[in-house]
What does this fold into?
Amino acid sequence: MKKKIIISSFAVVVVAVAAFVFFGNSNSSKDEALPKVAVKVGTIVDKALAVGTIEPEIEISVKSKVSGVVKHLFVDVGQFVKAGQPLLEIRPDPTPIELADAKRQVQFAQVDVDNLKKDRTRQDILFKNKLISDKEYEDFQKKFDEAELRVKIASEKLALLESGKVKIGDTEIESIVKAPIDGYVLNRAIEVGDPVTPQTSFMEGTALMKMANMDRLLFKGTVDEIDVGKMKEGMEVEIKVGALPTDTVKGFLRKIWLKAQKKDNATVFPIEILIPGAKNTTLRAGYSANANIIIQKKTNVLTIPERVVTFRNDSALVKVAVAPGKDEEKLIKTGLSDAINIEVVSGLKEGEEVLEKPVKKID
It folds into this structure.
């Protein structure tokens, strides 16, 4: 009887151990089974990243041709104006010495003309009676014309100082500064009462306002030297503006600088991207943005995550399951990569599954 009890107890222990081993191995296999990813049809885009800002293609500084102080402002920042539309009016503000000197110069010039007019009658008589040569008469006439011109110049200078308006030939100079182009007023550097220095051949003059046509904008930024060799002018670009996270603006690579720059200890190349026109998106000068330059794009190709591919000796390998708990490496041919997904040229078909790489455990 005791032998039967011992044998029965031993059998129970054996069964329990076997069950433990079986179920333990089953759970272990489940825990250690690698996840799978399917081969899908998708799009692979190789692109280079550029960082920069949005700027107008043409930006103009508005300056005055007359000196004085700002008398009146007709437009404000952000306003759209047509070419020739008044922007501001300048009131001449000469010093007493400048005004007095200008008046005296007119008087002196007029005295010379008056004296030459008196002498002109005598010169006409002498020339008519052949008492002076043709050259002498021409020299006198030239002297008289120059004296009249000096009166005119002095009078125009006085008119500019007093009223700020004068017409010289076909050019009309006035105290009202008008818009040189159709565009928006980007900023204003002056207020009513501020002094204004005119633009001349020797002076840059006071920049009163800045204007730009916002219909044609540029992305100006830099790209890393690693990507420059793959880029060429005319490539399509997708621009993401920081202030407009839901919008993507299209553009075209217009210019790549030939000379690199050093920026934050990195070698970069400046670039320009033309933005023909952003529909349904309001772009502002100075927006910071990132530009993705499309180097190569492939659609409707087989793709898998690049993380599941093992590259060894110029070969690309993936693991596929061949039986429960058993897998093997399979050679494939890869193509374009965007650093996340990679194109499968051959070796796999759509819908096939490949195994993820095992995660290394940290002891």
